[in-house]
Amino acid sequence: MKRFESQDLQDLKKKLQVDLIGVAAVDQSPELKERAALFLPTARSVVVFAKETYKAVVALLAPTKEAGAAEPGEVFTTHTAYIYGRLTRAVHETADLFLEEGYRSVPLSSPSLITDERFVQALFSYKHAAVLAGLGTLGKHSLLITPEFGPRVRLACLLTEAPLEETPPPPRLKNPCARCQACIKVCPAQAIRKPEPGQPYAIDRFACRAYRQAGLVCSVCLKVCDKITG
User: Fold this and answer.
1) Residues in the chain with pLDDT values less than 50
2) Of 11, 31, 33, 160, which has the most beta carbons under 10 Å away?
3) pLDDT at residue 72 in the model
4) CA-CA distance, 139 to 30, in Å (whole number)?
5) HEC secondary structure over 77-119
6) How far apart are CA 156 and CA 111, in angstroms?
7) Residue boundaries of the structural domains of the chain
C-alpha cells in the first residue's frame, strides 16, 4: 500500500477545487474516535475539506423579509448548494484514491450531516474535526473560523483507514472571539449566548432551527463575524 503524506493531499487542492484540506488522527480525541467508529470502525484518519463562500454573497444576508417578497440573501442558498456539490465531489474522488491503494474509506458529504433530530446534533461534527485538523477555531456562534476566510467556509469530511500525517495548526492561531460578542448581539432568534468559562460557545439549537424553519435564511451571525474577522 502507498503511504500518503500530507503534502500529497495539499497538492490535490487545485484539482479537487477546494480551498483548504486538513488531517487529524482519529485517536487524537476520544470523542472523535467514538464518532468515527459509527461509520468506519477501522478509521485511522479524518480528512477535512473546506471551500470558501463568496464574501459578496455573505454580505447579502439579512435576518428578516416581507412575506412573499424576494430577498437578496436567498442567493446564499443557491451559492452554498454549488459549494456543497464541489465538496461532495472532492471527498468521493479522494476516497477513490485511497480505495485504489487498499484503504477503506467513507465519504461524509455535504450537506448530508446525519443528525439526531431529537437533540439537533450531528452524529459526526465536521467543524470539531476541522479544529483537530488544524483548520481553525470555533467561534461563539459555533461556526469554524479560519485564518484565511474567517467563518466563510463550508465543510465535508472523509474517514479513511489510511495512516495520514496530521496537519499542524496554523502559526499564531488566536481566538478572534476573546473580546467579541457581536454574534450574540445580532442573533434574531436569541439562540447564541455567552459561553461558560472554558467552553467555546453556547447555542440554543432548537431556537436556531425554529427560526430557520419559519422560512428565513438568516446566518447573520456569519455576516457580522465576517465583517470583523474577514
Assistant:
1) none
2) 160
3) 79
4) 22
5) HHHHHHHHHHHHHHHHHHHHHHHHCCCCEEEECCCCCCEECCC
6) 8
7) 6-229
